[in-house]
Every structure is written in structure tokens, then in C-alpha cells.
């Protein structure tokens, strides 16, 4: 019978992986997963991500020799995923420190490990699927790419999804290779990335002819070359600072920490408002006609402050004749909401929305022109799944969240004075591809408001910013991003940063002319069709050569 590449006259590498005992094998998988994290922002060491995937292939080669190969492959994938996600998502524990009075200082680490362990099931399932497609030759590289692609797509969509650290994000946004996302989206780029980065593993296949051992790397090099060349050509068509009549946009962060914003003071809203007005500059000091403040810029249910004439007057004095897009929390007007504002009831009895409002100051008297309510909420952060069941457990911090926010309608175009129509993505929504309206409803730019203060000062804000830049690439739309405790920036439709700043304790702001809207991308027009086509091409690499005779020795 035909044997796997590692079976006949195994290389020293294959022999070493096959000889590993259970716990050392799990340790290697864990370390390889942790190494893969260095491929993502802020490091962007794509070569190390490739090293991690090569190690994963060799671990699965060893699993292929075992009787319970599917079970063994699942274990390898789970430990790899645990290493990858626990190091890549360690910043989740910072959110527990923000509300340490409710959770206590020690909940963050076990909660993060539990999240990583749960999500690692997808990696395990992906490797098990890959094992079902495993072969005795280089076709197993395509099998691995397909298996992990399916599991990563499921991870991004099941139970609202969590598409963080997708393989495609190991390419720095705004560089030539990243432009492939404008054709097949981040999932298509992830599939190609898996195929490219795993291809060097075939070099160790002693049982294959020399030409076949190097064939995957040669093919990967061709794909990289074509992708780089096409991406460079695409980007050459647009200057980074084009002239034109586009408005000047200013994005600002107050610099206040999450804990400080939540600290109760009778004048808190006024204090925070003044901080934002100071960092935004006066109409005379700034050339910007549009200001953007982050998610939840002013604490409490500040929508009602926007209905307070005294508050509006203060806001108008600072805005001048400029427009403002600001993140806020609001509740649905009614008797229950009024009772909550008077302190007579709890948040569990009202309908809360995480929103963004367009404040029109152009006409002279500021008014709330439009409101967008966040559509894609964060599980366990903004709502509790299966709340009717979980509420019976009486876990104090979860009871405090309660049923949480109410989801709004999907993103739609908002009219921003003296600017093209825009779509607002609030925080978590920026990690999901395909949320931008298409066709006649296509906007002219993307506004991203987020509160990255939850993530601390680690890698989380950098990862979040990189993903937001990929939304600009996919859609060919400029991006204006205001981040509390993170990176605020103006980005063009190629994902290139025009201006950016990282928030500081003193607050920070940056302004630039809004880059032009690019032509609707192939992904925006035919994304799902092109992605399915790419999947069929990769599947053909796995199954289309099935009739070719094996080149290795037989036993």
C-alpha cells in the first residue's frame, strides 16, 4: 500500500516528531501555536507564522501513523489553538481589571484560558477534517488548508462568531499582498495564506521525488509573486494624499482610562465633555469640518444629555459650525427609561442601545440628525446568550450586565453634513467582513468608533486596528477611526494609514483630508462567488491529482 510521506525512510524531522511522547508532543503543538501569534499585529512576522504551520503539518504527519488518527489530529489542533489563542487573546483579561470590584482581580486569567480553550475546539475540528483529507504526498498541504479554512469560517460565524486572528491578517494591511482581500475578502486571503505558509513542510518528504517535494513551494512562490505584483499595481493607481474637495476629518480621544470614565462624580458628563472639546480644538484652530469621537465617549445614558438644552449649548459652543459623530449609550424613550434616569429601576427593565449619533452643528444650532444602533453585539460583554437560563445561576457580575443591550438594524448609510454618506461600525463590528451595504446603498466612507480601553496597553488595540484596515481594503472605502485607548487614524481605501496617533494620558487627535472613495471592489460585487471559486481550485489540488501514481516506495 502507499504510505504517508513520513512512513518510508522517514527524514530526521519526521522521525523526531513521530518519536515524541504525548506530553512533549502537546508542548510542541502549544509552542507552535504561540509562535503563530507573532505573525499578527503588532509584530507581523509572517515568516514565523509559516514556521508554526510547517510544525503543525509535521505533527499531523505523525498523527497519521496512529490508529486513532482523527482523534490524534484533533488533539494536535486543540493544543495548537490553545497556544495560539491564549497568547493572541491574553489582553481579554484586562477587561476584568477594569471592573475588578465586580469580578475580582483573579478572574481574568481563567476566563481568558476558558475562552481560548473553547475557541481551540475549532482548530481541533479543522485538523481532524484535514486528517480526513490527508494523503501520502504533497496533496496533504491542500488538505490542511481546506480543513483549517472551514474551521476558521465556522469560528467566525457560529454563535455570532469571533473572527479574531484569522490567518489572512498575518499580512500587513496596506501592503501589496493585503490587496488580495479586495478580490476574495479576508477569508479567501486566509485560505491562500494557509496554503502558502504550510507549503515548505513538503521539503522533508524523502519518499517523494525531488520535483514533487519542491512543487508546493514553487507554487506558493508563484501565488505570492502574482499577488504582490497585482497588489502593487492596484495601489499605484492612487496617491496617498490626493487633492480634491473631500472634507477634512478630525478623530479624537480624551485619553481618559476606562476606570476613570466610570468613576462617579456629579459633574462627570460635563468634565468628560470638556476634555473632548479641548482635544478636538476650536473651529479656528482646526481645519476639520467633521469631528469623530469614540464609542461611549461620554459616560452614562448621554443621549439624554443631548436632549438637555444646557448640554447642547455647551456642545454647540465647542463645535462651532462643525458636524460631530459620537458614540453613546441610550435607552428607548418611555416611562421605564424615565424611571431609570430617576434611579427608580434597574437597567434590566429597559431597552439599552450602544449607539452612534450624527450631531449637525453646521446649521448653527446643534441637533441630533441621525442615530445608528449597534447591530452585532459582543456576547458576555454587551449581552448574555441564553439569558433566561443564565439568570437563574445568580452570578453577580453577569446579573449586573443583565439581558444587556438590544441589537439594532444592520448598518445603513448615514448622512453626514458636508461629506459623502457614511456607514458607522461600532467597536466589535469592524472585525466582521461583509457588513457594508452594497450596490446603490454603498457608502462613501467608513466611520469606526471603538472603545479599546478595555484591551489595555498590549497587542489587542493593534490587532483591532489591523482588522479595521482590512475592511477598508475589502470595500475600497476610506476609513476614519476614533478609538478610546487605542489607535485613532485616517486610512485610505488601500488600507494605508494617512494620519494616526495612539492615545495618551493627555488625549490625542489627528486630522486629515478624507481620502477618495475607490471603485467598488470585486469582493464587494462578487465576494462569495470568488471565494467559492477559490475553494474549488484548492480542492482540485487535493482531489484532482488523485489519479496520479504515488512516487514514494511501497511496503
Overall description:
The protein has 555 residues and is an alpha/beta fold. It has two domains: 16-237 and 527-543, no CATH class; 248-515, Carbon-nitrogen hydrolase (Nitrilase/N-carbamoyl-D-aminoacid amidohydrolase). The protein has 18 helices and eleven strands. It has helices at residues 12-19, 22-37, 46-64, 69-88, 92-98, 100-103, 108-132, 139-155, 181-198, 210-236, 258-262, 268-280, 309-319, 335-341, 387-390, 396-401, 460-475, 522-543; strands spanning 248-253, 290-292, 323-331, 352-360, 367-373, 422-426, 445-451, 479-484, 487-491, 497-502, 508-513. It has a six-stranded mixed sheet with strand order 5-4-3-2-1-11, covered by helices on one side. It has a five-stranded mixed sheet with strand order 6-7-8-9-10, covered by helices on one side. Strand 8 (479-484) and strand 9 form a beta hairpin. It is globular, with a radius of gyration of 25 Å.
CATH superfamily of the largest domain: Carbon-nitrogen hydrolase
Total beta strands = 11
- Any idea of the CATH class of the largest domain? Alpha Beta
**Computed structural class:** alpha/beta
Q: Residue ranges: pLDDT <50 for 5 or more in a row?
A: 1-7, 546-555
Can you name the CATH architecture of the largest domain? Answer: 4-Layer Sandwich
On the 0 to 100 scale, the average pLDDT is 87
SSE pattern, N- to C-terminal: HHHHHHHHHHEHHEHEHEEHHEEHEEEEH
CATH topology of the largest domain: Nitrilase/N-carbamoyl-D-aminoacid amidohydrolase
What's the alpha carbon Rg, rounded to whole Å? 25 Å
Amino acid at each position: 500500500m502507499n504510505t504517508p510521506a513520513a512512513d518510508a525512510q522517514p527524514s530526521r524531522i519526521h522521525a523526531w516528531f513521530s518519536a515524541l511522547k504525548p506530553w512533549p508532543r502537546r508542548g510542541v503543538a502549544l509552542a507552535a501555536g504561540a509562535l503563530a501569534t507573532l505573525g499578527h499585529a503588532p509584530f507581523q512576522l509572517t515568516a514565523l507564522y509559516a514556521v508554526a504551520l510547517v510544525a503543525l503539518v509535521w505533527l499531523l504527519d505523525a498523527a497519521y501513523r496512529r490508529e486513532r488518527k482523527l482523534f490524534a489530529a484533533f488533539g494536535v489542533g486543540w493544543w495548537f489553538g490553545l497556544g495560539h489563542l491564549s497568547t493572541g487573546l491574553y489582553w481579554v483579561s484586562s477587561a476584568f481589571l477594569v471592573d475588578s470590584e465586580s469580578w475580582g482581580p483573579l478572574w481574568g486569567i481563567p476566563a481568558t484560558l476558558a475562552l481560548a480553550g473553547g475557541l481551540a475546539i475549532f482548530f481541533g475540528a479543522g485538523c481532524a477534517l484535514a486528517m480526513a483529507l490527508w494523503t501520502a504526498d504533497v496533496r496533504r498541504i491542500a488538505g490542511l488548508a481546506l480543513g483549517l479554512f472551514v474551521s476558521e469560517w465556522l469560528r467566525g460565524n457560529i454563535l455570532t462568531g469571533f473572527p479574531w486572528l484569522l490567518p489572512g491578517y498575518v499580512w500587513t494591511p496596506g501592503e501589496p499582498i493585503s490587496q488580495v482581500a479586495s478580490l476574495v475578502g479576508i477569508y479567501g486571503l486566509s485560505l491562500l495564506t494557509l496554503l502558502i505558509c504550510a507549503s515548505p513542510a513538503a521539503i522533508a518528504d524523502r519518499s517523494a521525488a525531488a520535483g514533487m517535494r519542491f512543487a508546493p513551494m514553487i507554487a506558493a512562490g508563484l501565488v505570492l509573486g502574482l499577488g504582490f505584483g497585482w497588489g502593487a499595481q492596484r495601489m499605484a493607481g492612487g496617491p496617498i494624499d490626493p487633492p480634491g474637495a473631500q472634507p477634512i476629518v478630525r478623530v479624537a480621544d480624551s485619553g481618559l482610562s476606562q476606570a476613570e470614565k466610570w468613576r462617579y462624580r456629579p459633574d462627570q458628563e460635563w468634565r468628560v465633555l470638556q476634555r473632548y472639546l479641548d482635544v478636538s480644538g476650536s473651529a479656528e484652530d482646526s481645519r476639520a469640518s467633521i469631528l469623530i469621537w469614540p464609542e461611549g465617549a461620554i459616560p452614562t445614558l448621554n443621549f439624554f444629555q443631548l436632549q438637555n438644552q444646557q448640554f447642547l449649548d455647551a456642545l454647540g459652543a465647542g463645535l462651532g459650525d462643525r458636524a460631530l459623530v459620537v458614540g453613546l449609550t441610550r435607552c428607548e424613550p418611555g416611562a421605564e427609561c424615565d424611571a431609570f434616569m430617576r434611579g427608580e429601576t434597574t437597567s434590566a427593565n429597559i431597552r439599552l442601545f450602544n449607539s452612534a449619533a450624527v450631531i449637525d452643528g453646521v446649521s448653527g444650532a446643534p441637533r441630533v440628525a441621525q442615530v445608528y444602533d449597534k447591530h452585532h453585539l459582543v456576547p458576555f460583554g454587551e449581552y448574555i446568550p441564553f439569558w433566561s437560563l443564565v439568570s437563574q445561576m445568580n452570578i453577580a457580575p453577569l446579573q449586573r450586565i443583565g439581558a444587556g443591550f438590544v441589537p439594532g438594524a444592520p448598518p445603513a448609510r448615514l448622512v453626514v453634513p458636508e461629506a459623502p454618506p457614511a456607514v458607522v461600525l461600532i467597536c466589535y463590528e469592524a472585525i466582521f467582513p461583509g457588513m457594508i451595504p452594497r450596490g446603490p446603498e454603498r457608502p462613501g466612507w467608513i466611520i469606526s468608533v471603538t472603545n479599546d480601553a478595555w484591551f489595555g496597553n498590549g497587542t489587542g488595540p493593534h490587532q483591532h486596528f489591523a482588522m479595521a484596515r482590512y475592511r477598508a481594503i475589502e470595500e475600497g472605502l476610506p476609513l476614519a477611526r476614533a478609538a478610546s485607548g487605542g489607535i485613532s487614524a485616517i486610512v485610505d481605501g488601500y488600507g494605508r494609514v494617512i494620519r494616526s496617533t495612539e492615545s495618551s494620558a493627555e488625549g490625542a487627535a489627528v486630522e486629515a483630508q478624507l481620502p477618495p472613495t475607490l471603485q467598488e471592489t470585486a469582493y464587494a460585487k462578487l465576494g462569495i462567488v470568488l471565494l467559492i471559486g477559490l475553494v474549488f481550485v484548492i480542492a482540485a489540488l487535493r482531489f484532482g491529482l488523485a489519479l496520479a501514481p504515488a512516487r514514494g516506495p511501497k511496503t
